[in-house]
Structure formats: structure tokens, C-alpha cells
Amino acid sequence: MRKRQAVSRLAGITFCTLAPVLPALAQDAVPGATEHVNVIGQAASIGEALSEQRRSDAIESVVHADGVAQLPDENAAEALQRLPGVSVERDQGEGRFVSVRGLGPDLNAVTINGTLLPSPSGDSRAVGLDVLPSELIQSLTVVKTATPDMDANSLGGTIEIESLSAFDHQGLFYTGSAEGSYDSNTDRYSPKFSGAFSDRFDLGGAGEFGIAIAASWQERDFGSDNVETGDAWDFEDGARLEETSQRDYLITRERAGFGVNLDYRPSTVTSLYLRTLYSHYKDSETRNALGVEFADPLLPGETGEGEGFRELKDREETQEIQSYVAGGEHMAGAWTVSGQAGYSESSEKTPGGIGGAVFEGNDDFAGLSFRSGRKPVLNAGPDFYDPANFSLSEIEYTDDAATDREWNIRLDIANEHDLGGFAGTFKFGAKLSRREKENGSDAWIFEDFGDYGFSDDDLLLGNFTGRRPDSTLGSFGPGIGADALRSLIGRLDRDEFFDEEESRVNDFTIEEDINAAYVMETVDIGGLRVIAGLRYEGTEMTATGTGLRDDDFEAISVSNDYEHWLPSLNLRYRLGRDAQLRAAVTRSVVRPSFEQLAPGFVIDGDEAAFGNPNLKPLESTNLDFGIEYYIDRTSAISVYAFYKDIENFAYATDVAGTGAWVGFDEAETFANGDRARVYGLELAYTQKFSMLPEPFNGLLIGANVTISDSDASISGQDGRRDIDLPNQSKLVGNLTLGWENDDISLRLSANHKSRYLVEVGPIDDPLHDLRADAQTFLDFSARYTVMDGVQLTFEAQNLTDQAFYTYAGDRAFNAQYEEYGPTFKLGLTVSSF
């Protein structure tokens, strides 16, 4: 476990005892200063983070609980986006998945209290960190260069989450907060409550015991307005649009989290701990949509005919994460022995959801058109909004469940010794990890309702209307009600509508056993620290599932075993009192996503679609070099350059016409690419202007920017071409301006990331590559200390009403446009220490 700092909090104000907390900075103390210095609020949080980053043997970025509290972040993902090189992928405007140095979320690892956090999603390794309330977290660290004693399963970085410990505070600590938020898009209000408690107990001769408890609950009501084409553009005849749809989302997200952590230190040389965390996330979504498929593709402003449709999606998705970690450490002379056992489980369930209910227009509609290609909102006559002109065609009903479990046990042994007159530490250890991913899906397709006694009048949209959508993008007409559709389904025999193909082919179990061991030596030679070592990881993977070959089901079981020897070298050289150089050469191995490894297949004549359990893991050689300059304990400048040489990255492709698929017109699967490269520059600057006269001595500034690029090649039956790596933004930046004194804290923060490739189109048709446009989010927070232990907070998110926009080939051609509106919060926090 990481060594923690002695910190106490009072309603967002942090007090640090700097002498024991910042030994590496003691030499930077101002002459004549006292040994104990109090630093408040934002500056204290910055000081903590810089101290940890400076002392780390790896290149890392850190944000502590107080830093999270200073910003209007809903969850762990949004708290991380403030760090250098980090950006987030958003779901309905909320941060969800984390990208590091422009690399996709599947290429990063997430740990909680030292154990791997598995993914709740059925097809991904990426962990949606919106599941974790930020109140349950004590610190977030992004480690960008691994040492041999760390898992090698990340390319961008390893995100380490630490929860609250009683030894984070000097004694009794508790805090509680209540918050209300307002969503401007839906005009709805939402509550939130959180609290934490910790205390330490002196057991006399038996040592010291600590307990920490944290809990959080939030129910957030919000929504979004959307128009999308799904890349339905015909570029062969003047960029004409084939279809478009307008969507209204109404969402309720409930987050609940609870953690209990125990620490026991029977002596100064022995420590034991237990870390537990449970997080519950329920996402209830109702999506109404209206759209049209044009009879002939249209240009903006042209008028034509088309088939109209209306759709409803209504489902409740629940994700849960639970993690249990027990371990300890014992020092005996020059030897230190530490061990840990962990179990984590993530699950995702969508019981009985309407995946899609479709109402089709009874006749073609005339006089249809749309505005600009960026926002192709439909223009139609009154007949298009008349519920008598639409009839129920189909209801897709699903029951999905996915579970990801990981068990591990680890042992580390270290010995401090003299190495040719220099202080050295030899460390070795082993880790066993067992992971099991299960994905199950049942689907029913209800259609041909006339065959079951329903008349044409029974199926008219007017019998199923619900809440009327209130879209800011254009007219919508009546919405579809889920209750009436569920009532109709309840009158039918479900067994007659069971979709066996959809239900069986998507079911799979993937077991992944990893055995790892390492050796490493750390030696200090004057101002140079050298960490050299070798890690071994052996992987045994088994995938079982079902395939469908020309209407016949087949059982599948595939094994894929491989080994990796992963050397690494980390160097840190102190340039005098205030600066240090870092350099690292490391090796990474990242296994393919579960969607890519899924063994299921469908072969129908000369068309096929299948996963690829025989994919090779992605391997990378990583080079990092940088310099850090510490102006004072709350101010620093750093510059880093990085380069990654990647082998075997996986991508979607069509292999028809090759190998076993020579006679096929279509064979969609996943394949390994040849090589890819990622390279970039990461700059960060933090400054507290304490040297200025009042009131300017309360000013703070934080800025970071990551400039990166990538190149990769993909190939298929239609040739070969170069692409950027998916999800890789060339520019990611943050700017934070703050001001504070003993009573007031103000902070304005901007987060920017440039456009990036979302999905690769056909090999010979780059115009159908999908890209996400650049985004800049502006957030503001203010805190006022009413009295000792009582603080009033105000926060505003997305002040510029930044939309999410993806496009096909060129920004003029919509794939998806979605807007959310700003959110405002008011809260009260009561704390003691």
C-alpha cells in the first residue's frame, strides 16, 4: 500500500503538517520559516499531490480528496480529467471512461486499493468510472510508467484509486454534506447526500486501531436532445442524406456507495488492513425518437418523400462494483515482507428492457426536408405528427446480464542492503490472478401482431402515447408510453417470440489466468536513483460460447496461451535542490477486449460475423523522458516526452476473400494490425502566487497540455491504409484559475480535447470514418466558510453548453449531435476534525 500523508480536512480547508509529510521538500523550506506551516484549501491539495508525484519512483499524476472537493465533479472519471494527459469519454454529458495520453480506455488498467477493478460492461475491459461516487475516494493516481512490481496491463496508464483510511487523519474526523442540483435541459431538481467518518484508537501495548466509513447517495434527473444520422450519407452523389432521426432522452441516475476500511498497527513494524467498497449505479433511460428514411437521398433544403418511423427505448440498467482487499506489511531489520489478497466483482444487469419499439408510418409522407448537415432536424407537415398515421411494427425486449470477477493474491519481499557503497533495495515477488467474464443475453422479438388477434386500430400510436417530449432542436409530436407496450407484451406468450440466435450467440464465458513474478533492484548513486528489473507474465485464456452455422448451433471452446518477459528501467536524477530528471524504458502487454475475443459467430451463406479468440495481445515498448522543476511546495513546472512502439493492436475488419473466407462476400471480425506508434509532449504548470501582496496572494493557476500523434496501418480485402489510433486526441488541455483566502474559495476550470477517430469505416472508404469533434467544457465552483466547520458551496457545470458531435468524414456531415445544457448545484457541508 502507498504510504499516506498526515492530513486533516475542515469543510474543504486542508491543514498539512509539512515537516513529516514532505520530507523530500524539507530542503526547499524558506530560511527562517517555522517547521510547521498551515496551507489552506486549493493550495494544500496541490501541495499534497506535488509531494507525492515528486517522491514517486514512477512518472505519475495525482489528485487528492480535497482536490476533488474543489471542483464540480460528479464521479471519479470527471475528477481525473483535470490531470495532465487525461481526458474522458462522456455518456449523456457525464464523464465515464478515461483516456490517458490520447489512448483509448480499453488500453488502461484501473485498480482500487491495490487490486484490479474489473469492468461491469459485457464486452469491454474499460471501467466506467461514473459508477464510483467521488466522495468515496481519498486519492486518484495515474501512473504512466510501470515498475516491475506493477501489473503490465496498461499502455496509457494505470489508474490507482485509494479509499479513505483512518490514518489519513490525526484523530476523529467526520464530514457530511447535502446538495441540490438543477438541470437546465429538463428543468428538474435532484438531491445528493454524502458523509464520512474516521477515528483512531490507542490500544495501549496492543498498538493502534483505525476505522473509516464513507457513504454517498445521489439521484440525478436530467436529459439530452439529439439528432443523428448514423452515418447515412451517400457521398457518391453530392453528399446526400439517406435518413435522419431526432431523439429525446429522459434519464434518472442513482448512485449509492458505501465503504468500511479497517487498519490495525500492533507495532511500528507491522500493519494490517482491510479495504471494502460497494457501489450501486442505476441508470433509468427513456428515449423517444422520430425519424424518416427518404425515398431518394436529399441535400439540405431539398424536399422529398420518405417512410416515417417512431421508436421507444425504455430500460433500467444496474451496475454494481464490490471490492474486498486484505493485506499487511512486516519489517524485520533490513527485510520487509508484504502481502495482499483481493476479490473484486463488477456486474451489469438490464432486466426486462424495451430495447426498441418501432411504429412505422402507414403511408409515405410528402414534403419532407431537413436543415443543415450538421443538425439535420426534420421539417414535416402536420400529418407526420398525427399518431393516427403510425402503427406498431415491432417490439424488441431484452434481458441482459454480465459479470466480471477477479481474484488475486500477491507476495512482495524487499531487502535493504549496501551495493558497492551505495544504498540499494532488492525486491522480488509473485502474483496469481484469476479472472472470469460471463455475458448473457436473452431477446424476444414481438411482431406480426395481426396474427395474434390484434386489429389495425389496436396498433395505432394513439393507443400507446405517453409523455410528450420537449426537445430544443425541433418539433416532436406525441411520445410513446412504455406502460402500454408492456401491457401488450403481457397478453402474449413470450415463448413464441424468443429469438434463439440473438440469445445464444451473444452468450460467452472467458476465463483468464495470469501468473506473474518479478525481480527488481533499486539503488541510489548520489543524486541518481536507478530502478531496474524484469517481470514475467504467463496468460492462459479459455473462451466458450455458441456459434450459428446455416441455422445449426455449435458449441465452441477455444484456448490461447502466451508468455511475456518484460524488462524495465526507471531513472530519477536530482538536479540540485529544486529540479529532477526522469527517464524510463518499459514494456506493456494489453489483452484484447472481450468483444474482440468473444467466440460466438454467425455464418449465413456467404456472409459471416464472428469474434476472434486467437487474437494476440497488444505489446508495446514505451520510452519516457522528462524534467520537473519545483518552484516551491505548491508550485511546479514539468515537461515530458513519450514514445510508444505498439505491436498487434486490434481493429475491426472484413476478411472476406482471404484464407478460410475466400468464397465469402462479407466476413466481419477483428484482426491484429502490424505496428502503430504514439508520440507526444506533456507540459504542466502549477503556481500559487503567495509572493504577491494581498489580495493577489490568493491567486492560483494550473495549466497542462498534452500534444500527441499516432500512426497505424490497417488492411483488408479492399487494400491497406493509414489511420490514427481510435480515441487518440492530438491535443488535450486543462486550465484552472483559482483564488482563495481563509473564508472564500473560487475556481474556474476549462477542459479541452481535440477531435479524435471514433470508428474506422471500410478500408477503401475513409469518408465513412466517424470522428468526434473537439470539446471544451467550462466549470465553476465557489465555497464560503460560514463558520468553523460549516461551508456553503455553489457549482456550475458545462457553462458554455458544450454539445457532443460526431461526423462522417467532414464536420459538415452529422453522425450524432447531442446537447445537454448547464447544471447548477447548491450545497452545505458540515465537518469536524
From TrEMBL:
Q: What keywords were assigned to this record?
A: Cell outer membrane, Membrane, Receptor, Signal, TonB box, Transmembrane, Transmembrane beta strand, Transport
Per its UniProt record, what Gene3D superfamilies does this chain match? TonB-dependent receptor, beta-barrel domain (2.40.170.20), TonB-dependent receptor, plug domain (2.170.130.10)
Q: Which SUPFAM superfamilies match?
A: Porins
Q: Name one GO cellular component term.
A: cell outer membrane
Instruction: List, for all copies, the residue spans of the domain called TonB-dependent receptor-like beta-barrel.
Output: 362-799
Q: Name one Pfam family in it.
A: Plug
Task: Please list which residues make up the signal peptide.
Answer: 1-26
| InterPro entries assigned | Beta-barrel_TonB, Beta-barrel_TonB_sf, Plug_dom, Plug_dom_sf, TonB-dep_rcpt-like, TonB_rcpt_bac
**Where does this chain mainly localize?**
membrane
Q: Which compartments is it annotated to reside in?
A: Cell outer membrane
> Ranges for the TonB-dependent receptor plug domain?
54-158
Please tell me whether the keyword Membrane is annotated for this protein: yes
Q: How does it sit in the membrane?
A: Multi-pass membrane protein
Top-rank taxon, per record: Bacteria
The UniProt entry, under NCBIfam families, shows: TonB-Xanth-Caul (TIGR01782)
Q: Which family does it belong to?
A: Belongs to the TonB-dependent receptor family.
Q: What is this protein called?
A: TonB-dependent receptor
- The species this protein was found in: Zavarzinia compransoris
